[in-house]
Write a structure and sequence with these properties.
Helix content: 25-40%
Radius of gyration: 17 Å
Strand order of the largest sheet: 5-4-8-9-13-12
Order of helices and strands: EEEHEHEHEEHEHHEEEHEE
Distance between the termini: 23 Å
Low-confidence stretches: 1-26
Number of helices: 7
Shape: globular
Oligomer: single chain
CATH class: Alpha Beta
Mean pLDDT: 86
Number of domains: 1
């Protein structure tokens, strides 16, 4: 399973971090303020050697930020894994569907209550419908009691063609947005849907951003 340590030894789906594509220093990335990230960082403040799970693509910037604060980071690109043809099957009607058990057998295989925090980003908005609830339940199992999770959800004004971004931490409340593959927005959750999704968690707090994104911080 992929992990980073203070020595920056990192595996990403079987590849070392040093093998990841290098980003040009001239690449332009728009930035945005994030109240949810600020609250997430407040939850981690004053604590060291925490275990953090990042569910987005590998981000050297996020690794540097979190390991620099004395934490350990694990990285797993769940969205990319969900598009693997090997986990696709067909239902009784012959329609293509994700084989849930196979996906869970090959992904997010961590110890019970292993993590202190999870960066979920906007992954649930792009995942296949059959995987969303299973993902949240699996993450709940690997998150320690009192652990925090940061997630983003698009609002109804975003539209199905809303661009997919990789989020890079640039400061306590600043994110840089890197345009990624054109994954299609699968759905839009309203507040009630989000509350139901995290109903097994202790608390949930919403932050409404300007760019048609609802930020959510939940505590296990």
């Amino acid at each position: 399973m992929a992990s980073f340590t203070h020595s920056l030894l990192k595996l990403f789906r079987g590849e070392a971090a040093s093998d990841a594509p290098r980003e040009s220093a001239l690449t332009l990335r728009p930035s945005r303020r994030s109240s949810g990230l600020l609250e997430f960082n407040k939850q981690l403040a004053g604590r060291e050697n925490l275990c953090i799970l990042d569910l987005g693509p590998t981000s050297p910037q996020n690794i540097a930020h979190l390991t620099g604060a004395g934490h350990r980071i694990y990285n797993e690109d769940v969205l990319l894994a969900s598009l693997d043809p090997a986990i696709m099957g067909k239902n009784e009607e012959g329609k293509e569907q994700v084989e849930l058990e196979r996906f869970l057998a090959e992904n997010l295989r961590y110890g019970n209550q292993q993590f202190d925090a999870v960066l979920c980003w906007d992954i649930p908005d792009y995942l296949h419908e059959s995987l969303v609830k299973a993902l949240v339940e699996r993450v709940a199992g690997v998150l320690k009691p009192g652990g925090v999770l940061l997630a983003f959800f698009h609002t109804k004004d975003a539209g199905p063609e809303a661009p997919y971004y990789r989020y890079h931490i640039a400061g306590p409340d600043v994110l840089e947005l890197q345009r990624g593959p054109q994954f299609r927005l699968q759905r839009v959750f309203n507040n009630r849907h989000i509350e139901n999704l995290f109903k097994e968690y202790k608390s949930i707090k919403f932050f409404l951003a300007r760019d048609n994104v609802r930020e959510v911080l939940v505590v296990r």
